[in-house]
Amino acid sequence: MDPYQVLNLTRTASKKAIRKAYRALARQRHPDTGGSVEAFAELKLAYEVLMDDARRHKFHATGTVDATVPNNAAAMALIQITQQFVSVMRQLLEQGADPLQQDLVELLGRFLEEKKHDIVDHLAKRESTRATMAKLLGRFQVDKGDNLLEEMVQGQLGILDGQTTLANKELNQVREALKLLKKYKFRREAPIDLGIVNWQGCSWRASIR
User: Is pTM, for the whole model, over 0.85?
Assistant: First the structure.
């Protein structure tokens, strides 16, 4: 089943568009309005898959749809690994390296560690920014009416808090991804040994990587 086809949507559809399409089709396919139980169940499953970020990503990655909700922690960890896998492969191909002769698990771990450190650094900077901005509370004064500048500072603090929550959530996902990665090894190909090569009086052992 392709949930996008069921809902007549493109892969870039927003959640608002998904919800709107589901509501419109639910009226048509509900058994009480002349639809069938099977068609409505398929529609409901398509909607649930596309509204769940982890299940939606899994469909994009594998083309399969799970009828049950997966372990979200593992699913989100897999999303982080997939993102880094794309980056690793892009870098290897740009460098002309053969992915089969690299330890892809080690490289994925390295990329995830770099991402973890970046998130930690950004969190520290954001915490410092918030602490400084919080000192502005109560500093703006107005003779009459609403204190719009005070509300502005409060709004900015709220934005920083929201960003911090999201960053911490992503940090936990990266940590889970690193734990998941420890269970795996990559069986890479050994370089082809060409033996001793002589050229212009010089000898060395050559291999194809």
Answer: no
Q: What is the mean pLDDT of the chain?
A: 86
> Tens digit of pLDDT for each residue in 18-41?
999 999 998 888 877 777 777 888
Listing DSSP states for the chain in one string gives: --HHHHHT--TT--HHHHHHHHHHHHHHHSGGGT--HHHHHHHHHHHHHHHSHHHHHHHHHHS---SS---HHHHHHHHHHHHHHHHHHHHHHHTT--GGGS-HHHHHHHHHHHHHHHHHHHHHHHHHHHHHHHTTTTT---SSS--HHHHHHHHHHHHHHHHHHHHHHHHHHHHHHHHHHTT----PPPPEEEEEEEETTEEEEEEE-
- Domain 3-66 CATH (choose: 1.10.287.110, 3.40.50.300, 1.10.150.130, 2.40.340.10): 1.10.287.110
Domain boundaries, the chain: 3-66, 76-181
